[in-house]
Amino acid sequence: MKVVFYSFTGNVRRFIKRTELDNTLEINETNTLEKVTEPFIIVTGTIGFGEVPQPVQQFLECNHENLKGVAASGNRNWGTNFAKAGTRIAEMYNVPLLMKFELHGNAHDT
């Protein structure tokens, strides 16, 4: 299954790189409207007070019909807002929240 990810600080990118997955797509400012025609999961960080990054929101507006799950990165210092973007996406699109991990994850997470 394709893994689509967005990394604004590099943490999610490092996490994805450690998984050694081949079928990935990194969301950036130029491809948020790119159509994905196969099932995928999305991995994203959380910004502000538990918000979904704007590029991820734009991407999902175009591609939510193939979204199968979400994983989110965050910083535990944010308390209840830790990796909350994952919770928001899961609720908005009725998909499972697969995992939350801190920053770029650890060996157990990948």
Report what the structure shows:
- The model has no long low-confidence stretch (mean pLDDT 86).
- The two termini are 16 Å apart.
- This protein is 26% helix and 25% strand.
- The longest helix has 10 residues, at 54-63.
- It has a 5-stranded parallel beta sheet with strand order 2-1-3-4-5, with helices on both faces.
- With 110 residues, the protein is of the alpha/beta class.
- The protein has a single domain, classed as Flavodoxin domain (Rossmann fold, 3-Layer(aba) Sandwich).
- InterPro entries: Flavoprotein-like_sf, RNR_NrdI.
- Output the strand order for the largest sheet: 2-1-3-4-5
Report the end-to-end length measured between terminal Cα atoms: 16 Å
CATH superfamily: Flavodoxin domain
Number of strands: 5
Q: Which range best describes the helical content: under 10%, 10-25%, 25-40%, 40-55%, 55-70% or over 70%?
A: 25-40%
Output the CATH topology: Rossmann fold
CATH class: Alpha Beta
Please give the count of helices.
3
Can you name the CATH architecture? 3-Layer(aba) Sandwich
From the alpha-carbon coordinates, what is the Rg to the nearest angstrom? 13 Å
Question: Could you tell me the mean pLDDT?
Answer: 86
Q: Outline, from the CA principal axes?
A: globular
Structural class per helix/strand content?
alpha/beta
Order of helices and strands: EHEEHEHE
- Contiguous runs where pLDDT drops below 50 for at least 5 residues: none
What percent strand? 15-25%
**Describe the biggest sheet?**
5 strands, parallel
